[in-house]
Amino acid sequence: MGDALRDVVPIIIGYVTLGLAAGMLLVAEGLSWWWAPVWSIVIYSGTMQMLLAPLAGVGEPLAAIAASAVFISGRHVFYGLGFPLDRVRGSLLTRLYAVHAITDEVYALLASKDRGAMSGRYIVTVEAVSQASWTLGTTVGALAGTGLTALVGDDIKLLGFVLTSLFVVLTIENWKSHPDLAVLIVGVLAGVVGMTIGGSAALLSALGLLAVGLIALYGWRSRRAARAAQARGPRSDAGAVTSSEASGSTSGSRASGKDESC
Q1: Three-state secondary structure string covering the chain
Q2: What CA dihedral angle connects 235, 240, 241 and 242, to 10 degrees?
Q3: Which of 105, 97, 92 is nearest to 124 (CA)?
Q4: How far is CA 178 from CA 91, 108, 173, 189, 256, in A?
Q5: How many CB atoms lie within 10 A of CB 216?
Q6: Could you give the CA distance from residue 102 to residue 40 in angstroms, rounded to a whole number?
Q7: pLDDT on residue 143
Q8: What's the average pLDDT block by block, 10 residues per block, for the chain (262 residues)?
């Protein structure tokens, strides 16, 4: 357990810090503070919780919220493919919690360790401490936001910039690691269309257009790569045949020369 507590310190620092902002944003959107610990236990997705606060605050349709959850947190489903669940012993409840508590940071930490050397206790301890730190951060942030509301009133809504800042930072970091102009253009166009439509259909329209655009882009790139591979294939074969013929001609010439000398 000592190793788990030592390894999880960076996650604790990050989760408490970001959790404070998430909790204050929740209150700024007009929700009660106690939603912070409830969401942190049940949902446990930082980005989704920060997005859910304004969506729930304005009464966004459930379909739009569900679509947002799929787009933002759907990747967690695939974490289970590489997650060392076989190392987790104990009851079914323990194993289910181990799956529920996988986050980006926890997965990155576990992936950096030797799979065979990890125990189930180590894995569950890392996950439980990480979630506890996130829950603590959001709860304290929500309580602080409640206190600020009593002091500044409706001006607390100015904290809504936290969500915008978060997604701006995520976009910049993603661009640094995977600079893809076409994907950026698709995202910007989807956002512009959503803002133009406005109302309760804005988010769902933007997400739908984003999905269609990314699928179309992927299909176009796949077909282009396939055509390029096919175009290179015949040339390679022709080159191989030419080389073979040239080699055969050279061998034949040498043989003829030997016969003549004899």
Answers
A1: CHHHHHHCHHHHHHHHHHHHHHHHHHHHCCCCCCHHHHHHHHCCCHHHHHHHHHHHHCCCCHHHHHHHHHHHHCCHHHHHHHCCHHHCCCCHHHHHHHHHCCCHHHHHHHHCCCHHHCCHHHHHHHHHHHHHHHHHHHHHHHHHHHHHHHHHHHHHHHHHHHHHHHHHHHHHHHHHHCCCHHHHHHHHHHHHHHHHHCHHHHHHHHHHHHHHHHHHHHHHHHHHHHHHHHHHHHHHHHHHHHHHHHHHHHHHHHHHHHHHHC
A2: 90
A3: 97
A4: 41, 18, 8, 19, 60
A5: 11
A6: 13
A7: 93
A8: 83 88 85 92 86 78 80 76 76 87 85 78 91 95 85 65 67 80 88 79 77 89 89 60 52 48 45
The first and second tokens of residue 44, run together, are: 């446990």
Q: How many residues does the chain have?
A: 262
**Residue appearing with tokens 């959850």:** 69
Please, are residues 107 and 83 in contact by the beta-carbon 8 Å criterion?
Answer: yes
Structure tokens at 66: 């569900």
CA–CA dist 251, 254 (Å, integer): 5
